[in-house]
Amino acid sequence: MTTSPYAVNVATLINRPGTMRELELDVTVPERIGEGMLYFDKGAVLEIDLRLESLVDGVLATAEVSGTLTGQCSRCLQDLAEPWSGTVTELYSFEEDESVEYLVKNDLLDLEGPIRDAVVLELPFQPLCEPGCLGLDPETGEKLTEPREEPEAAIDPRWEQLKGLLESGAVEGDADTGSDAEADAESSEDRG
Ligand SMILES: [Zn+2]
What separation in Å is there between the alpha carbon of 87 and the centre of ligand 1? Predict the structure, then answer.
């Protein structure tokens, strides 16, 4: 049987309500947590301060988790390394029951589910390297340090060509004639 790196043996706490145990563990993340632009990558280390309390019907686990998220700024794609910490509290029952989400199995409780849920819930959808990140210059691909001015030259060359045609009168604006006639008709009705 392969044991999850998030699994903790609680044999000494079973059937001993009122007993408490504290321990520290480092978990090397076996599988990336988080699907977005910021995540705990495979191989990242989670430091966990764990308190286990034995109750009549199960073990209450309180885990203070901290580690470093990695990923990229959603605007400029710069690499990010952000500290993350959070507290996870979960009851692991001895007996299976409809209302029970987590169980103590083979003297083990597995912290992976609750930790994963807590991390994913808090991950920013669009992480930024700094609050006012201006993103990348679409022309140079460099990170912008000040707001970009919109130069005339940035007009799509195809539009530029069309603009030239309009100015030279090569394209007649037929559409206008119709609406003018309508407007005239309306105003003459008003007078009548
Ligand atoms: Zn950025």
Answer: 28
